[in-house]
Specification:
Layout lengths: L1 E2 L6 H16 L12 E8 L2 E8 L2 E7 L5 E2 L8 E5 L2 E11 L2 E9 L8 H15 L7 H13 L9
Antiparallel strand pairs: 1-5, 2-3, 3-4, 4-8, 6-7, 7-8
């Protein structure tokens, strides 16, 4: 079983990914030296820690166990479908160290060479926020639903 983090794991994640960068990633052709390693937007979501990790080689959404949580260890080849406000996303288990276990969803790997550090950080912060934002609906869909409610008719839906 994996125990949850009582406090925001951002500093722990950044430290672990700095070690990975120094030991095995820095010399690879897709390593973007100008991109920082940063844990972005981490906050509690349904008792778990959710945010994004930006490194010189990737951008991922991450979920880690929160305070009082105990996760079962999953195989590396498993996929977990998580229902986020923006929709269902597939996450895979990962482990940097026995005490740093997470679920991740890759957003960009490798990092686009044309991204500046500032844009990459903005993308990471925005990705974490958007994943937890309420879903957007087209104005016509909302108005059709209101008209149907007021007229007693059922609005058609593309999800049926």
């Amino acid at each position: 079983m994996i125990d949850g983090f009582d406090n925001n794991p951002s500093a722990r994640l950044e430290h672990a990914f700095h070690e990975i960068a120094a030991k095995s990633m820095a010399g690879l052709p897709f390593y973007r030296q100008h991109i920082p390693i940063r844990a972005c937007g981490f906050q509690r979501f349904e008792g778990q820690w959710f945010g994004a990790i930006l490194t010189p080689w990737m951008l991922q959404l991450m979920l880690l166990p929160g305070p009082g949580q105990r996760w079962q260890h999953r195989r590396a080849d498993e996929r977990v479908a998580l229902a986020l406000p923006q929709g269902e996303m597939l996450f895979r288990p990962g482990e940097i160290a026995p005490d740093l276990y997470y679920l991740s969803c890759s957003l960009m790997s490798p990092i686009d060479a044309s991204l500046s550090a500032e844009l990459a950080l903005e993308l990471a912060e925005s990705s974490a926020k958007l994943a937890l934002s309420l879903p957007l609906r087209q104005r016509d869909e909302i108005n059709a639903g209101r008209r149907a409610l007021l007229s007693g008719k059922r609005a058609s839906s593309s999800f049926e």
